[in-house]
Amino acid sequence: MTEELGRADNDSPWKEILEAYFPQAMQFFFPQTAELINWERPHEFLDKEFQQIAREAELGRRYADKLVKVWQIQGQETWLLIHVEIQAKSEDSFAERMFSYNLRIFDRFAKPAVSLAILCDTDPTWRPNQYSYNYPNTRLNFEFGTIKLLDYQNRWTELEASDNPFATVVMAHLKTQQTNKKPGERKAWKFSLIRRLYELGLQEKDIRNLYRFIDWVMILPKALEAEFWQEFKQFEQELTMSYITTGERIGYERGKQEQGQTLVLRLLKKRVGELPQEVRGGIQTLSIEQLEALGEALLDFTTLEDLLNWLEANQTA
């Protein structure tokens, strides 16, 4: 049986890349909204505010949701709710959930939010963009912006020509889907996409950031990963630009983080019992430093509520 390649925790790289290149994400996916924003003023990720409404909603695990405060060119403060749906399948409740989050933001903070969704699934027919109901005396039609990554399959030349970081993100995502049971092809595309970062003449910081995303989503079997590293070392030596292979700690840190997650989850199960899936998902987004802190704190936990309180106080949304 062919090995199916994938990783359960796909929200972490999306969160990282959205935070690192948020203006570019908006310009790439939602240019009309981006044109309204004054990018000379700093944007702010409202992690604490989002945690409050997400905790109350209890709608299951959210993927890479970001609540962001920006300023319009005319001077108004605006909140953006960016939702990345990684593994969605066609479901009637998605639009309702988007409406629920928007409503909760308004109810809790008296702020209307611009709601935007990035759909990463493989169903070309699933395109939710509104939630509505209609009665004789009451009517509602809530519309939200959506972008479907699958649509970029027919725009590959455009992606290759773009120097926006999110062109690389989309290319990596699509090729990950297309090579799900083809590890040899995935290895070739992984090498090609990372080599492209150098060919674009990007700064070392940008190459490292995008490498982290590509490396995380385009997971390879251990044997092919070893081959990939050897080939890539040679490539960097020929370029005399050792940006990534001198930073092999990136792969090391990722492995260390995964080991830490496994250990902490096992200890928590012993302390407070079986964890809900959304709580496990939250733990999988923690950094190495946060995992170490949780590993110490959990010794004092006696109930699931202790864990939830700790996550609310320490977790980055």
TrEMBL record:
Short name of one Pfam family: DUF4351
- Domain annotation DUF4351: ranges: 253-311
Listed PANTHER family: SLL1691 PROTEIN
According to UniProt, the name of this protein is DUF4351 domain-containing protein
Which organism is the protein's source?
Answer: Nostoc punctiforme (strain ATCC 29133 / PCC 73102)
